[in-house]
Amino acid sequence: MYDVIVIGAGVTGAAIARELSRYEYAGKTAVLERASDICEGTSKANSGIVHAGHDAEPGTLKARLNVLGNRKMEQLSRELDFSFKKNGTLVLCFDEKDRDKLRRLLEKGQQNGVEGLRIIEVQELRAMEPNISDEAVAALYAPAGGIVCPFGLTIALAENACENGVEFHLNTEVLQIERTQEGYLLKTSKGVFESRIVVNAAGLYADALHNMVSERKLNIIPRKGEYCLFDKSAGSYVSHTIFQLPTRYGKGVLVTPTVHGNLMMGPTAVDIEDKEGTNTTGEGLGDLLKRGGLSIQRVPEEKVITSFAGLRAHESSGDFVIGEVEGAPGFIDVAGIESPGLTCAPAIGEYVAEIVQELLPVPKKADFKVHRQGIRAMADADEGERKELIAKNPAYANIICRCELVTEGEIMDAIHRPLGATTLDGVKRRTRAGMGRCQSGFCAPKTVEILARELGTDVGEITKSGGESRFLTGYDKEDIGSA
Fold it and tell me: Residue limits of the FAD dependent oxidoreductase domain (predicted)?
């Protein structure tokens, strides 16, 4: 019997797990995740934007948690050692007739408590962003806006929770939930779990789990967003995150630098039915590049190195759904966490932990580990640090991914640390091996060999992202596998 089970190991579930790990739960805390790794769903495919907080309607959970999450991000990045940069955001106005919309956005932000907001005129705008579109006439400037690595944030939260005693059960899909006298019985693909309290942070599937315990049904709509990622040679094309005045489908297409030095554009916004529908389309990418061209003078299309799509968990109320479910004591929904969910995650973690504490109060740990050390990256190290790493482990001198300068030592660290990588994508998200210009074209075979060696398994068992996504289907010569 667990005290608390969190369903879902995305950024929201990981943030909740980290906050719960501060407390002395005698029956322990666990996270159940249907995928083979953390950060496999919505959290792995988003803009990585730390929103300032001027978009959400005043008085909503989104508005309050956005501003709180934004204020926590810089300190959290120091505690957990992930990439974050406060680069500021600009919301472009293209028509003098729309200045009232820009002023209303300013007023909303001020009501929400966003600091430093102001409207800037075209001369200052062009000084800040020389490549901005000639059509822009003014902009809302939010210096509190920032960018973060979504993988780095999620993995850091989960690793720290794990180090503080939270159990993570991967490849564990929740199939059925039943009420018991003491709490809930969760039937999964890996057996039965029991818990006094259940936190439903299952992203796109939060409605399915909610509907197992409640007569009042929830409906999550997958909202697909397609993105283009540009080579690092285009990374300085803009220095701020550039938005357009929002529409009913969100904040429109943005253009932004990433914390790793690339340029990114997206997302589109199309409601679909398939909760696994992460395919890109020619129509979607064409629309994306066209709309992105409204913000900057010339889209460097020749420098696109990849495209991808992510799904946002949209709930029809328009606000986050967080709280104990009526008629299901001890079952806490954390649903409809779409944009700005990544920004809100640290604040959501605290908010949900407070709800759990009201239901099952226990003291805080005296030995909670606040800090977590990330993987030492040779690409970011100076000469002295590189020599030190190589002296400790010569594998740090063996470059595997030349595009991103990732070494064998970093990949080994990614595999053997808490909640270590077991797939090619798992290594990619932890080290950036395969995220460069060639998109794994050269480094993937060697990375697969390292995974097999370090995990003590055959290369035929290594997958791209779990399940049946194997690279090898068999051997073409008899007994070669045991040779």
Answer: 3-354
Candidates 51, 54, 210, 314; catalytic one: 51
Q: What is the pLDDT of residues 171-221, one digit of tens each?
A: 999 999 999 999 999 999 999 999 999 999 999 999 999 999 999 999 999
Q: Per-residue confidence at 249, pLDDT binned at 50, 70, 90?
A: very low
Look up residue 47 and give its two tokens: 């803009």
Q: Identify whether 51 is a catalytic site residue.
A: yes
The dotted CATH code for 378-474 is 1.10.10
Using alpha carbons, select from 312, 360, 352, 313 the residue that is nearest to residue 333. Answer: 352
Task: Tell me which CATH homologous superfamily contains domain 84-144+221-312.
Answer: D-Amino Acid Oxidase, subunit A, domain 2 (3.30.9.10)
User: How much is the pLDDT for 483?
Assistant: 47
Could you list the beta-strand ranges (E) of 26-128. 29-32, 49-50, 84-85, 89-93, 118-121
DSSP string, 423-465: SHHHHHHHH-TT-STTTTTTTHHHHHHHHHHHHTS-GGG-BSS
pTM over 0.70: yes
